[in-house]
Design a protein that fits this description.
Length: 451
Amino acid sequence: MKVNFIDCDRKTPYLLPPSLEDWLPEGHLARFIVEIVERLDLRSLKDSYSGRGSSAYHPVMMVALLFYGYATGVFSSRKLENSTYDSVAFRYIAANSHPDHDTIASFRRRFLPQLSVFFVQILEIAERMGVLKLGSVSLDGTKVKANASRHKALSYDHASQLEEQLKAEVAELLKKAEAADQADIPDGMSIPEEIIRREERLKAIVEAKTEIERRAAARHAAEQDVYEKKVAHRIQKEQATGRKAKGSSPKPPTPGPAGTDQVNLTDSESRIMPSGNGFEQAYNAQAAVDASSMLVVVEHVSQNPNDKQELKSVLDAIDALPEHLGTIDILIADSGYFSEANVTSCEENAIVPYIAPGREGHNRPLMERFTEPSPIPDDADCITRMKHRLKTIAGKAIYATRKRTVEPVFGIIKEVMGFRSFLLRGFAAVKGEWKLVCLAWNLKRLHVLTR
């Protein structure tokens, strides 16, 4: 039986030059990202080029290449370079050119600070497309592994021991170098090289100890401030009541670093943080997600393992958003953000907080889900009002939206886009890379919403 197959001819050259426009179907994500980037105001990038030397790759192409790479899980500069050869979509974006990995890495490092402007511009494009109108946001944080191993962390006590050991070894090597008789020197040992190696390690250890001491001083200053406020409050209470306050007096903080205080030698600005698998060298990545569109509207990175201190930064960023994007009037967050100060800050910014005061057990009584709570006094404080709000049927429904907004965004970023670890090192670079990740997610989401 004769079977008809489509010809597979790799030898015959094209009669006419191929067109890049024929390479991808309409509606492809690569096409969409190119169209969005062409609408961005990239003058700040273009103006930064001096015009001297060899011709540079156009910023429009390089920005689109980075955006599409992060949106599809291709993060490293070497993989981005290889993809301009191997992937039709990347070839389309790069206009059949092939910037090398050094060029890509340099471009990313140089222009990371500019991404804040592009992040807001893309939100404005989403608003003009009719898919973003701010109202309710869900806030959460996730630990993202730093580009450093926790096994490269050095504690203050261990650093001090190593410092003494290396100083003694350097002194011994210097004695051997000065001795006239070199017979006791083992074969293959180069005293100058051994001294240089130990002096380099000593320099790294001294820098690590200095950083630990700096952090300890900052911590002591913060703890001292809290201690003084507690003492003042206790004295004020005793004067008002005429009786000695109950409980033990506050203890002043201990200055100086603790023996277990540590710093990472690979990325000294990362921190040991709890994760699903114990503890990891990481950063705390935050995102506030619009409840209706699932677009990230505010993001930042923190060195604090606890989320409680991050709400103020989010409120400041919300306040800085352009007015025409809409007004955020509801903020939903889990119990990690609960504190009286955070609830008060939300209300002072005209935002109604839905912050869980604690964890609730599963399998609550059936009728509790359909029963309104008892009324509260008109002069109730902000915490009482919020707890009552969360117990109402409407409040429970609003709080439940958190599980289908911000949590899926983190899940997709980590599991679908594959971003589980920062490539860059240092707090400033990591902040820029997280913005790039959230920007890439917004482009993917905007592509779906407008398709």
